[in-house]
């Protein structure tokens, strides 16, 4: 019943639209005579007899043209002729504008045609705004998205320009290419997930177009302008920083030239080789607080040293007070000794014996000046503990037995914090790093001499831990360092050995010479990615055979940087920062346990952090996270991009998520045979409504590579967008940016010929074998060259029959030879298998 009411409302709306269009056309037709008079003048002899109102307006000296006289005559036409003499002007106007032009030109006067066309446009415009649908919905309301749906996808956006454009936004993550040829882009800083099997064109179809697309940049002048204020400047918002997981190195090699030309600072973090930039997970440029922490600590110790006899001990006690008490400032003001735990210097007591009770004394003023620094130092130390905890989670696999996993991670946290604060206390040691941590452990245990009188728990590790605890207490390292070292020291020797084995297994990769070299220092800081004046494109390149082992370090970078970016102040980001886009290709190479990284879809919108997660199937993603987390991830992302599928489970899940549409089925029956009751020409037709899947699983499993894809956008999951792949080699601008040459007519002809060739023209791959991108390129280039050579040979044979030399050919004595064009002239890059 509700469905039928909505259909009736939709029909009524369309009828109303037609009537409004007719009224608009009639209103515009009243302008036909003034326009006719403007361009053609008026025949006085025909108008004076039957059309006195308009004939009275005739001036024998008037010539067609726009003038004040024409404006006056037009006003008189509306005031006198149109309203007072409707029976006199209707028939002559019909003859003047319709009948006579039909006899001469075969069509009415152009002013009539314009009026009717304008009325039709008005009717269509009103019909387009119909809030009701004719579609039957009794068994499902799924349907494919229309252009109107695409434009209204960002109906809740704050920026009016973005709200009006929808998925036709000038910036944002590239999702696909609409049937009208325009790119579909994420209008807001939301995340997306791309699901496609190997060889389906993920790199060429989605990832590279995001790197090669236009990212207009706009910096507000007054602070509150929107894109609508900057239309003439071709600007929108700050260019984003890209962080790309690129195990093969193909994305870096192909996008490098364009990114540099577009003004990007390109960073290559190659963990398996000696080239590229370096990143130290424990380096000062990566740690919260950075190099400001030791300077702040020194400033606090200098101030405390002017009041207390032991400033290191005083700072240690004050940090505990900050941790355990909310009224520590009031307690310190009431009693600067905190119950006798802090010893004030004798000379301070002698000079200020009568002034210590108030904050007006110089000593108390000194303490008051460093209260803010103490709070900042405490905050940085807490953030460092969380940062190191994330690194330990990435280093030690989630699949290890929980007891040894948790103990190993706790030990690694304690050792890492000890390394950080030891290097801060002694600058001659250089930057802290996992390689330096391994050195500290080696140096502390290699010369160990066991004590015959000691118990069985006295070993090299126990001796090292005792020495490190003593050093931490003497130098005033944070309490967390002493806590973790003391906990491990109390563990029985056999269990401690297993814990250390688990810990060392997590950082074994840092013993490799190339990895240690690439992680011994940092050539950039995490804040540089966000607040740099130039946009940054960072590629993490790892050899594919070592992708899982080196994926720990990639996971450390992704997890630590994501935690930093989603926790930054939103005001600072939107006034000085840049959006961050993670392109997580080959997600299977990353480690488990990346909690902050996987929170980007849920928390990154306000902090301008986006994630494009690329997986082969939802089942593969579930191997890195659990199935429940996959469901949460799908509900948090703004869009799901679906290419050709191989996994039936994923196809079924997508089909079920989209839902059914209501289809009308007809059952036809006829009685056969002979007899009195048989009527040969009588048919019985019964119609019924049923629900059918809009996107059957078989449809998703048989999509054409790099030609078809679907986009499921938030708020319109039951209206999937049927679009084509935005592959870079199908876009002349992107092709020019990647290859350096705009494809000309010959290249387009080559692609056309290659596409027309039968698929058996190129060698078929072996059963069970997957053809690589390079094989596709070579096959396509060979097919195109063969087609061009055959065409040239055909022309040469025809010329030979006619006794003519080919145009532009060299004389036979010069031995001219046809050189087929190289594949690069036609095929620009990877995943162009369809050209073969």
From TrEMBL:
List the biased-composition ranges (Low complexity). Answer: 804-816
List the residue ranges of the region (Disordered).
Answer: 804-836
Bilayer-spanning residue ranges: 12-36
Keyword check for Membrane, yes or no: yes
InterPro entries of this UniProt entry?
A: P-loop_NTPase (IPR027417), T4SS-coupling_protein (IPR051539), TraG/VirD4 (IPR003688)
Pfam families hit by this protein: T4SS-DNA_transf (PF02534)
- Any one Gene Ontology cellular component term annotated for this protein: plasma membrane
Q: Which CDD domains match?
A: TrwB_TraG_TraD_VirD4
Gene3D superfamilies recorded for this chain? Answer: P-loop containing nucleotide triphosphate hydrolases
Q: Where in the cell is it found?
A: Cell membrane
Q: Which family does it belong to?
A: Belongs to the VirD4/TraG family.
What name does UniProt use for this protein? Type IV secretory system conjugative DNA transfer family protein
Q: What is the originating organism of this protein?
A: Azospirillum argentinense
